[in-house]
Amino acid sequence: MTRSSAETRSEMGHGVFQGMAKKKTKDRKQDKQSPVQVGEHHRYQIKSGNLAGTFVARAFPKPPTQARGLIAEASGATEEAAIIALHEVLDSREQRRAEDRRTDEHTGASVPSVEEYVEAIGHVALTRPQRAMLLALALSGATGLTETQMASAAGYKSQASGARSFTSAGLLIAEYLSSEAGSTDPSGDPDARSIMGFRAEPEGAGDPDLWIAHPELREAIQAVL
């Protein structure tokens, strides 16, 4: 065998082993990486996987919301165990929140906490007019606004349009918080406005009714909007 042939075979062998070494390195890297599984639980998106040798499941705001941030997390001996543990954490959180809600003396509705309202407002798709209306209502404090004033604050030309938009906003918040949407309004027209406030009795004959937002909602709106 000539020197040239030996050198060629040596170089070829070196290249093969070098390629094998690269492949093994790549395989080891892939072994360390665990694919992230994505699921849902109620209104949350669940992401789970193996993180540095520990199975972890985390809850985040569910798309298409623009809100970001970790809601809760849990770990377990397996990925399934971590997911189950996280579901229990979230269910316990929801139960605690429901138990902490107060009952509004005007409507009998269950009123969420400031924390719940902040989360809901940050997640539901409120329109710009709805946000303007809610902000105006919050800034009016315990005095409240007439439906005409609320519609005007949102840029609507008619009181009816403003009322529909207000009800729609209430439905979005109620659905997100899984609240019982229903009003004890004398008109008998059930809607979700009771989750946002109550209709005050007019002071004098012929005076328009006033809508007053719950104190918890007022605080949440001024913190978020």
Characterize the structure shown:
This protein has about 220 residues and is α+β, with helices and mostly antiparallel strands. About 50% of the residues lie in helices and about 15% in strands. The chain contains seven helices and eight strands. The chain has helices at about 5-30, 80-100, 115-125, 130-140, 145-155, 160-175, 215-225; strands at about 35-40, 45-50, 55-60, 70-75, 100-105, 110, 195-200, 210-215. A four-stranded antiparallel β-sheet has the order 1-2-3-4, covered by helices on one side. Strands 5-6 form a two-stranded antiparallel sheet. A two-stranded antiparallel sheet has the order 7-8. The termini are far apart. The model is unreliable at about 5-15, about 25-30 and about 180-190 (pLDDT under 50).
Quick description:
Helix content is 49%, strand content 17%. It is built from seven helices and eight strands.
Strand order of the largest sheet: 1-2-3-4
Q: Total number of β-strand segments?
A: 8
Q: Mean of residue pLDDT?
A: 82
How many individual helices? 7
Distance between the termini: 83 Å
Strand content: 15-25%
Structural class: alpha+beta
- Please compute the radius of gyration using only Cα atoms: 29 Å
Biggest beta sheet summary: 4 strands, antiparallel
The oligomeric state of the chains shown is single chain
Give the SSE string: HEEEEHEEHHHHEEH
Helicity, as a percent range: 40-55%
Strands, helices and their partners?
Blueprint: H1 3-32, E1 37-41, E2 44-51, E3 54-61, E4 72-76, H2 79-100, E5 102-103, E6 110-111, H3 114-123, H4 128-139, H5 147-154, H6 159-177, E7 197-200, E8 210-213, H7 215-224
Antiparallel strand pairs: 1-2, 2-3, 3-4, 5-6, 7-8
